Amino acid sequence: MTTSAAEKQTKTLASSAPPLGPPQIKLIIGGLIVTGVLLVYLMASQEAMHPLLLIIGLLLGYTLFHARFGFTSAFRRLMAVGNGQALRSHMVMLAVAVTLFAPILAFGLSFFDVEVAGYVSPVGVSLLVGAFMFGIGMQLGGGCASGTLYAVGGGRSVMFITLFFFIVGSTIGAYHLPFWTEEMPAAEPISLATTTGWGYGGAWAASIILFGLIAWITLVVERRRNAPRMADVPTESGIKRVFRGAWPLVIAAVVLAVLNALTLMTRGEPWGVTSALALWGSKGAEVIGFDPASWGYWQGESAQALQQSIFADTTTVLNFGVILGAFLASAAGGLFKLSKITKGNAAASVIGGLLMGYGARLAFGCNIGAYFGGIASFSMHGYIWGVVAMAGTFLALFLRPLFGLSVPKPKDSFC
Questions:
Q1: Which residues on adjacent β-strands are paired with residue 229?
Q2: CA-to-CA distance for 37 and 368, rounded, in angstroms?
Q3: What residues does 364 pair with on adjacent strands?
Q4: Where along the chain do its domains lie?
Q5: Which CA distances in Å does 118 have to 132, 316, 379?
Q6: CA-to-CA distance for 267 and 195, rounded, in angstroms?
Q7: Torsion-angle region of residue 107: left (phi > 0), alpha (psi -120 to 50) or beta?
Q8: I need a labelling partner for 272 at 20 to 30 A (CA). Which of 97, 291, 358, 376 fits?
Q9: What is the structure's pLDDT at 159?
């Protein structure tokens, strides 16, 4: 039986990834200078963990950009055309993460003698509403939390709009959070390791089985829907591939899991993104006359963060590292170039950023803090976040065309 030309064209998802160019030496030098200055500043003014976290952030951003490792695109491709390649790489990432997190959490392993704890959060209305909003927002905004940061570093202009309104949404969410957590119904946090009595060994085994099941389901969906495969992204060969071009998703998945475990051992909690955005926005609100110190969100232990430099905040340091790492990776590949902004994608970025920022606060995290960090910490809320965010993605598929965004065959390789 022969395959028609039209059928062949459906076998691969289109990619808008531009070809590699010569290394942008001036940009690389500039990025290294900024990184070096920030590193020296952190060494002189902050705790010993902060410079290490900047380096970890750099490696996170470098990895995310090189692999075009997507959370937003992974959800969208599965829901739109049934392609589960990227989601299977998530399962690899999570499998490696729980394998590393289990002994770290069980024995309290750390580099700086800090108390180690995973992200285990309540399950309730706040989580459901927040994750659903985030799922819609990341499809309209063009990227998730980590994707927004590395796309900004890579020069995707519209993502600066997404990031700004992500910060605004996070700030409003911080202001409203006491209502959602105190007035809305919620169950106590559920840990597969401690709440169930399975221990970390049992929770690890259950997690691995579940990841395998999810990966198998994506394969079944692909076969039934005859899903197209993801297009290749331009890359170098041999050792040059480390610095220029695309990395295999599986390799990136392992690297991200290892870096998240190192983050846990360095600062005592997993990788996160959005708490820093709420901090930046609250400080900005303070400048223009608001009083965020009176908000319930900034009471107790959180109050100190509002009074200190943003660079005392470890999540801020990680975020700047991700942006710088992606910038260096894009410049090394000759790919840094500010992209065109249209009315459609600008409007989508405004709405998407607001939904993601607000949703992340309600859901106790984003695709990194809740989904990646929560599941790696054996928290039930991480799994629920993923399912509900997928539902938000499904709805967003009908909203994207209103802004001129592609469906059902995503052409953007960004997260």
A1: 12
A2: 27
A3: none
A4: 23-403
A5: 23, 19, 8
A6: 24
A7: alpha
A8: 291
A9: 96
